[in-house]
Amino acid sequence: MSKDDQSGQLEQLGKLKKIIAYYDANAKAYHQETVNLDLFHLYDEFLQYLPKGASILDVGCGAGRDFMAFSARGYRVIGVDASVAMCQLARTNSKASADQIINMPFEKVHWPERFDGIWANASLVHLTEKQIAEVICSLMNSLRPKGVFYLSLKEKWDEEKGKDRLFLSYNQEKLIHILSSIPKIIFIKTWNSADLRAERKNSLWINTIFQKASETGYE
């Protein structure tokens, strides 16, 4: 690895640590801002491809909103988040154990073919193009053959510098190009949706659902 590559990795690691620190410091405020968002239309889009009682990995579970919604519907859910404060809040809100809500960065997830579905709602928005491909490829290892992956990211392809955080945005063409480089992905659906927060009603999200190919082929 060149010195430039090492320097770039260290710089990005520093950015991610700063982002995690932001969520640790603002966990309660972020929860209050997003807890009442009506995402049931997104849940239905995802869950229609899963059997009843399926196992779901909630990646970047935050304060536990989606974890609780899936659990209430009878799904077996594990939530992971890199923020200690978010995990503590999620456990309090959901009354889940530390084995159900786990403080863990995405790159450390390693449960080979354990889950029927992976839910990554607005949780990979701070990753670069290279990082998001690596993380999704790694997460796919925890998905069973024919398992389903839901992903949402900001629409556009540019960098938005917010206070204490850096957001990477994508358009459909760019996202599909990135995902097409990952083995065993079968695209199911891609669509846009508006941000549900009133102060961000002009912002758009890109949603995609894809499936992991079976061991015997793309079925």
Number of helices: 7
Q: How many domains, as an integer?
A: 1
N/C terminus separation: 39 Å
CATH superfamily: Vaccinia Virus protein VP39
Radius of gyration: 17 Å
Q: Roughly what percent helix?
A: 25-40%
**Which stretches of 5+ consecutive residues score pLDDT under 50?**
4-8
List keywords for this structure.
36% helix; 9-stranded mixed beta sheet; 219 residues; 9 strands; alpha/beta; Rossmann fold; 29% strand
List the helices and strands and how they pair.
Blueprint: H1 3-25, H2 27-34, H3 40-47, E1 55-59, H4 65-72, E2 76-81, H5 84-94, E3 101-103, E4 115-121, H6 129-140, E5 143-155, E6 159-162, E7 165-170, H7 172-180, E8 185-194, E9 204-212
Parallel strand pairs: 1-2, 1-4, 2-3, 4-5, 5-7
Antiparallel strand pairs: 5-9, 6-7, 8-9
Structure description:
With 219 residues, the protein is of the alpha/beta class. The protein has a single domain, classed as Rossmann fold. The chain is 36% helix and 29% strand. The chain is built from seven helices and nine strands, in the order αααβαβαββαβββαββ. Strands 1, 2, 3, 4, 5, 6, 7, 8 and 9 form a nine-stranded mixed beta sheet that branches.
